[in-house]
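Figure 3 (text version): structure tokens given as input.
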């Protein structure tokens, strides 16, 4: 399907969610950091899946104590 296909991005997000639920936050973060800019490019900044990915990444940052990074994503989401 390709690296930018929506189904590929959904699968990557699902894997990140699995990692998150297992407490494997760094691995979840690595995937979401890859998925988010691709979703922005493919689906647009305001697409629900893009916003969900940003929220997931913000949550992942928060669980790792990266509050400033989380705040940036949350503020950007509120601005859309």
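Below: residues designed for each position.
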């Amino acid at each position: 399907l390709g690296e930018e296909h929506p189904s590929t991005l959904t699968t990557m997000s699902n894997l990140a969610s699995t990692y998150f639920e297992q407490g494997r936050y760094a691995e979840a973060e690595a995937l979401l950091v890859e998925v988010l800019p691709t979703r922005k490019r493919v689906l647009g900044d305001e697409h629900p899946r893009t916003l969900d990915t940003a929220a997931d990444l913000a949550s992942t940052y928060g669980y790792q104590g990266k509050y400033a990074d989380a705040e940036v994503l949350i503020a950007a989401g509120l601005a859309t």
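The mean pLDDT is 95.
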